[in-house]
Amino acid sequence: MNANTALRPNPRIWDDNVWPEELAQDKELLEQSFQHALNMLQPEPYPENWPVLQKLSTLETMAKGAGAHDKFIRPPIAVHFKDAVNPAGVAQKASTLTGNDTTGINDWSKNTTLMNYIPDAWNHGAEIFTCCNVIRVDKASKKSGTSGPYTVYFEWQEPGREAFLSDHGNAITPMFITADIVVLGAGALGSTEILLRSSKTGFKTSNQLGKHFSGNGDVSVQGVHDNGLQGVCGNFTPPIWLHSAWSKPGPSPVLCVTPCENGTTPLMRFISVPIIVRGVLLQWRDSCAWRLDGR
Ligand SMILES: Cc1cc2nc3c(=O)[nH]c(=O)nc-3n(C[C@H](O)[C@H](O)[C@H](O)COP(=O)(O)OP(=O)(O)OC[C@H]3O[C@@H](n4cnc5c(N)ncnc54)[C@H](O)[C@@H]3O)c2cc1C
153 φ, ψ to 5°? Predict the structure, then answer.
């Protein structure tokens, strides 16, 4: 998960009729699945006994001022706050509070698929092939003499493949594998893209493919005040972080506003901006200041 939040959805979410019946109705399977994820990710809130962060403190003060303190929580996040070996057997380290979590963080604290599910799959005997860009899936033709009912075509993205130009001379012939069961896990955009390409060559897909798309967050807001960007933007891993924790962004996010029971308040998360997009934020701040000045 990109920004670490490991909150369960509000139960009313499952009442929406957008969900396939098999998913929304089987509450037991749903519960078991949440439990599996919790066991693997081991999320926990930003610990009370860790250094107070400027961002955390400011937002809590604002919440008190707005009379909404009870709606503010420290959400469970998939971050390690102590050095420990995770359930997949990988040694992880305590967070260095650099705030770069949404684009990736190299301090070994974030519980990403790289740290847990991929090593776990490897421990269970999975074979892993990288640099393979899946193009499309097809029903394997009986004539081809292949065993599985599906064929997955992919480009192998290593140098030297140009030696295998297709008959037409301008495209590299894709490689393929066959399988009895194929699970596409290329994300909301990637899986849709593969299926849309597959449907063009006759693979049967749902007529809902590629429709009803939306982001899971509806609005993104940045606030800048007199203290500048301290505690908001990601930073390089500090050598002695404990001495200056106040100005560190901390993991992302440390605070959330939870929805009201009737669902009228949206879920709000306060995240840190990773260092790689810091420049964009600074430009945005300067252009806003320019507009506020009326120039
Ligand atoms: C900025 C941001 C913050 C987020 N924060 C949170 C959060 O705090 N909590 C939360 O629960 N969720 C969060 N999410 C959502 C969460 O990251 C996604 O729901 C989740 O990663 C989806 O997992 P996935 O395995 O389906 O797809 P992905 O994680 O997108 O994985 C798909 C993989 O397939 C690969 N791929 C794509 N196309 C092909 C192809 N043709 N051939 C081969 N490989 C391909 C991609 O390279 C990628 O590695 C966030 C998302 C973003 C963008």
Answer: -95, 135
Specify the 3-state DSSP secondary structure of 225. Answer: strand
pLDDT tens string 56-98: 887 778 778 878 778 788 889 999 999 999 999 999 999 988 8
Nearest residue (by CA) to ligand 1, atom 38, is: 190
Instruction: Note the pLDDT tens digit of each residue in 237-278.
Output: 554 444 566 667 777 777 777 766 665 666 777 777 777 777
- DSSP strands (E only) in the chain: 72-73, 84-85, 91-92, 132-139, 150-156, 175-179, 255-257, 268-270
Full domain range(s) for residue 161: 125-200
> Given ligand 1 and candidates 1, 118, 195, which is best to mutate, with the most ligand atoms within 8 Å of its CB?
1
The reply to whether ligand 1 has any atom less than 6 angstroms from the CB of 194 is: yes
Q: For the chain, what is the domain count?
A: 1
21 in a domain, yes or no?
no
Atom 46 (ligand 1): residue with closest C-alpha?
Answer: 186
Cβ of 102 less than 6 Å from ligand 1: yes
Query: Distance, CA 187 to ligand 1 centroid (Å)?
Result: 5
On the question of a cis peptide bond just before residue 45, with omega within 30 degrees of 0, the verdict is no
154 CA: nearest ligand 1 atom: 42
Q: Is residue 262 part of a domain?
A: no
For residue 185, being part of any structural domain is answered with: yes
Q: Pick the residue whose CA is nearest to atom 28 on ligand 1.
A: 187
Rounded Cα–Cα distance for residues 163 and 173 (Å): 10
